[in-house]
Structures are given as C-alpha cells and as structure tokens.
Amino acid sequence: MTDTGFAADVLYLLLRGFYIADTEDPGLWTDERVGAAVSRLTDLFVAGLESRPEGTGGASDDAGGAPKP
C-alpha cells in the first residue's frame, strides 16, 4: 500500500467515524470541529511525508498496509 493509499484509508475511517459520532451526538461533532481535525491530520501526513529520507516511501506489499522495516 502506498502512502497515498494509507492516507486515503485513514481519512475515510476518520470521516466514517464522524458520520457515526454525528448521528449519536450531533451537538458535539460540529462541522468546524471535524474540519479542524481533518485539516490537522492532513498537515501531519504531509509533514511526515516531507520529512522522510529519499528512498523510504513506506510502501508495503502486504494487504495489511504494515510499513516495511
């Protein structure tokens, strides 16, 4: 799995979790709160990708997406 695929999976799960949480407690999980969390998570992904040395893409061949050592 590529870094892009991993990021997409995590964002999907985050947004899916928001949908469920919003259904349970819509007053707590506002668009602003979720937007801030998604934005921060995206920034962390980008910062992590930019800080990797050349040749360490973190891609994995297994279906579980575990990083290669």
Structure overview:
The chain is mainly α. 61% of the residues lie in helices and 0% in strands. It has two helices and no strands. It has helices spanning 3-24, 31-50. The chain starts with a helix and ends in a 19-residue tail after the last helix. Residues 59-69 have low confidence and may be disordered.
Brief overview:
The chain contains 2 helices and no strands. It is mainly alpha-helical.
Compile the SSE list and pairings.
Layout: H1 3-24, H2 31-50
Helix pairs in contact: 1-2
The ordered string of helix (H) and strand (E) elements is: HH
Quaternary organisation: single chain
Question: Structural class, please?
Answer: mainly alpha
Strand content: under 5%
Average pLDDT metric: 75
State the helicity in percent bands. 55-70%
Keywords, please?
disordered C terminus; mainly alpha; single chain; 69 residues; 2 helices
